[in-house]
Design brief:
Ubiquitin-like (UB roll); nine-stranded mixed β-sheet; six-stranded mixed β-sheet; 11 helices; L-amino peptidase D-ALA esterase/amidase; alpha+beta
Length: 407
């Protein structure tokens, strides 16, 4: 497997575009298009929030119907959530406008929205934007990058990646882009991720690869404990690599799934590290667990702890907060066996052994915790299973952003 430059346009047959439609923002692009020259098999995973945005309902119906797709229309600024029948109708109008502009079937057009909840979409602006997107689509790498920028809300940078693998005598490419900074919490987190591949693959294998991997990537990140109404991951495969079709539970499937994991984990970590107001990516690894589920529960509890997150922001090795978060996670373990470590590019230090403090340098701990990527390791010494979760520190910047988000 090889990481290459690019994002959603890296795979054969995919094009992208971006435009400024003025949906909410006055000074930036706010709409993106992903287009495939050939119809794609699709897979998707969606928010666990009972309150689901109109695009989530629309996309889930498209994915579950089995109809092939050739385009994804995404807007930022307005989420089209809690908008009733009118909002769902705008999804249909978006699909019809895209079909007309691109000369494709409206039934398979996918949509994505992110931004303020409760506002109705200015549909005429959206339709005008679709025409511009259709006119400006391109297969070049820059078009993919500009599309990744257009879907940002409070994100501070675009998030994209592409990888290649060999399937038989063919090169298969997987590329992706994502956005997310706030309202991020495990259970499909406002997080949007769009992944493209030129792999020839069965729909069963495509959906399985995505569904199985989401639990170890996007569902293991948290910024603020709020599960969005709009969380969506879409995976489109157009088969243009012309490899022998990948089927579920074969060696080629495992190779594809491993590459997809690299893409998903990279995007998930970028989302976590770009949390609103964040100054550091906070990674938590729980090891020595008796089951993978036990490790996941504990890791999530630590990474979601506001007290721990503020300690990371203050570069304070307040390890008691970590042990506390482990204790209320709901997972059973022996606290008197727990070893805790902090590490970063500045080094590694043990701060707790068998549930009690060890002698360590506070100065060294502060140095380690002052880096842009910080890791906490908890060894509960019960078995061989482990899990990793990602989040960020919690600063005053988070309040500054969210106190006036609608203005």
């Amino acid at each position: 497997m090889k990481i290459i430059k690019g994002g959603v346009t890296a795979a054969k047959g995919f094009e992208a575009a971006s435009t400024a439609a003025g949906i909410k923002y006055k000074d930036r692009t706010d709409m993106a298009l992903i287009y495939s020259k050939k119809p794609c098999k699709t897979a998707g995973t969606f928010t666990a929030n009972v309150v689901k945005a109109a695009p989530v309902k629309w996309d889930r119906n498209v994915v579950e119907s089995g109809v092939k797709s050739q385009a994804v229309i995404v807007n930022s600024g307005i989420a089209n959530a809690c908008t009733g029948e009118e909002g769902y109708g705008y999804c249909k109008e978006t699909a019809e406008a895209a079909a007309k502009a691109l000369g494709i079937d409206a039934e398979g057009v996918l949509v994505g929205s992110t931004g303020v909840i409760g506002m109705q979409m200015p549909i005429e602006k959206l339709k005008n934007g679709i025409v511009k997107l259709a006119e400006g689509k391109s297969k070049d790498i820059e078009s993919g990058t500009l599309a990744a920028k257009a879907i940002m809300t409070t994100d501070t940078y675009e998030k994209e990646i592409a990888v290649t693998i060999e399937v038989g005598d063919r090169t298969v490419t997987i590329g992706g882009m994502a956005k997310g900074s706030g309202m991020i919490h495990p259970n499909m987190c406002t997080m949007l991720s769009f992944i493209t591949t030129d792999a020839a693959i069965s729909k069963k294998a495509l959906q399985a690869a995505l569904s199985e991997d989401v639990n170890d990537t996007y569902n293991m990140i948290s910024v603020d404990g709020d599960t969005s109404t709009n969380d969506t991951v879409l995976l489109l495969a157009n088969g243009m690599a012309k490899n022998e079709k990948i089927k579920y539970d074969t060696e080629d499937y495992k190779k594809f799934a491993e590459a997809l994991h690299v893409v998903n984990e990279y995007l998930a970590k970028k989302i976590a590290g770009d949390g609103e107001g964040a100054t550091a990516l906070f990674e938590v690894q729980v090891m020595g667990a008796s089951t993978k589920e036990q490790a996941k529960i504990i890791a999530k509890s630590i990474v979601c702890s506001n007290l721990t997150k503020t300690a990371i922001a203050g570069h304070d090795a307040n390890w008691g907060r970590i042990l506390c978060a482990m204790g209320y996670s709901g997972a059973e373990f022996d606290p008197e066996k727990v070893d805790l470590f902090f590490e970063s590019k500045a080094g590694k230090i043990q701060i707790c052994e068998n549930g009690t403090a060890v002698a360590y340098s506070e100065e060294k701990a502060t140095e380690i915790l002052s880096q842009p990527e910080v890791k906490a390791v908890a060894d509960i010494k019960e078995g061989s299973e482990k899990a990793t979760a990602w989040g960020c520190d919690l600063t005053h910047g988070y309040i500054d952003i969210n106190a006036d988000y609608r203005s």
